[in-house]
Amino acid sequence: MPIPTQAFEQYTVAFYNLENFFDPDKDPNILDGAFTEFGRQQWNLTRYKKKLQKISHAISKIGFEYTGKMPSLIGVAEVENKRVLNDLLAEPKLQSIPYDYIHYNSPDERGIDTALIYDTRVFEVLESEPVNIYLEDESGVRDTTRDVLYVKGLFSGTPMHIYVNHWPSRRDGMESTNEKRIEVARQLVSHLDRQDPENRRICNDLALNDCEHVIIMGDFNDEPENDSLKKIIVPQGFDNITAPLKSYHRGSINHQFKWGLFDQILISQGLHNDIPESLYFWKAEIFDDIMLRQWKGKYRGQPARTFVGRNYKGGYSDHFPVFAIFRKN
Q: How many domains does the chain fold into?
């Protein structure tokens, strides 16, 4: 596909779950023992460096066929710490862009966090914080999970609120964990309301410059049609721009040979516009290029994973990235 040459600027916003991106060193404060040299996954420096190369290569290609450049914003999940992020941004594939990142250590027991990588030429950080999520199990004991990362900044001059999410998994069953994700959605909306008490993300008759612009991205461990997203987040003035991408033959994850779309991007109303000098949404996609796929065997066409159980496969991730293209006239 030829790269467009129209008279507008284009920016890619992406989200990518990096599948257990640990460094190979033992951290005494988290449960990362499996991802060490002598741990269950035999995660050593050679495997770590190979993953750095693969993930950096994948990130460099997200949205490139539409914009001719690397992403401006990349939300990531399942990254252990700042060392991993520093090593990733030092990779040759990414060094040409002055990337920086926002990251906080979350209370997740395994130590896997979210982060926002950003091109400092395009995005200026004004403030950031981890939105601490409080959950309890059936006995009233706190159930630790990942924070939601909140970042406020100027995206090509446009004020923007960004939330990077990694919601509780379905490992113990969809139904038994459903309420956890619904509760995270409620707490996310509470933070939205504190940042936007006048509900200006719902533009209605407001001038575009008076609207609050919000991007919510992440691995929600829920589908677009599930209650946490469809009934709690979307009615707060959001459009799930990735929802139409899901089909029988396509998604961001594949479980038991069935496609799902856990990785999604939602935007507020004001980002649907075509006004001069304003940032607006143009297109959403799944980056499921052949290079990120299993190319033969039983799992042909599925994401090329780093591990399948304990078996090291040396792939990229068990998720495909999702992304959105924004334009500015």
A: 1
